[in-house]
Specification:
single chain; about 400 residues; alpha/beta; Aspartate Aminotransferase, domain 1; Aspartate Aminotransferase, domain 2; about 15% strand
Length: about 400
Amino acid sequence: MFENLKAQPADKILALMQAYREDPRETKIDLGVGVYKNAEGVTPVMRAVKAAEKVVWEEQQSKSYTGLIGDPAYSDAMIKLILGDAVPRANVGAAATPGGTGACRQAFELIRMASPGARIFVSDPTWPNHISILNYLGMEMVPYRYFDSETRGVNFDGMLEDLKQAKAGDVVLLHGCCHNPTGANLNLVQWREVVDLINAQGLVAMVDIAYQGFGDGLEEDAQATRLVASSVKECLIAASCSKNFGVYRERTGLLMAVSQDSGQTTLNQATLAFLNRQNYSFPPDHGARVVTTILNDDALRADWAAELEEVRLSMLGLRQQLADELQRLTGSDRFGFIAQHRGMFSRLGTTPQLVEKLRAEHAIYMVGDSRMNIAGLNAKTVPILAKAIVDAGV
């Protein structure tokens, strides 16, 4: 049997990480891997997470299974964080998942179960794992224009034109905030136009929100997702706690199925439980319990929100510093988009050849499509990166 297996394509980001580790140059800069790093290059455990883990350790009396959908208190806390009062709680089915990736996988499984012929419209570009999972599941994808390589902003006219080709029942996959890999986001006026198009054409919205709190703030970053959930007939929302709680390895995510008809929620909830059972039975609990402890404790929540705001402002400061340094070196504002982007990532919009030149000649590691992790920088490495970008002719 095993001899029939075929080698799968190597994950480009994991390969990049390995190449970075093996590079002996002391000046090397890692802008590839998508995790937050502080000025010391460390992905820290947040203060509130440490405190909540201590509470869990002291108070938890059993390691028995939770339910198929995880602890309902976790779902309640996350739904409140992401959706606020945008929709009634009774209209939301939810299930804990192994990270945001697990939430996306379960969402795609639900779509395939409910509407096998539905096409998934994905932004060009999108998070590579969206495409990888959809390909593995054999689901039809249709790219829609999103990133404008000239302005490094959103090609909104092209996006609308492409989405108008979608048919009733097709699914539109949207990034709730801090678009990965580009950092370029829709404004609320544009979001309303997208919602109007979805409703007019009978489409289904799916929102992937993995960076709430990394862009313009916790409440601000949730506005688009809340608009979608409150305005369309039904939608799916895949959420991750990896970034904003820093619990990457705990694999803490949530999938929501939102319907304007609360009578649909019972079936939605049962379907989510069924899908969990088929895939991994019971979702991991430790990260979810830590997140729940934080969100349900006023002091812990305030400390978490304060540290998250420090992280957000740090990344905005690095963006502005890099844009300013590039303007100083080039005498041009053509890199001003870096300060306008939000979240961990920006896409330079250059060629794979120049990305390789940055690696080979300057030890700058970023993904081949020129996505760079802003959180991989610090105040000392920003001038090094800026000079390398200019010297490489980006």
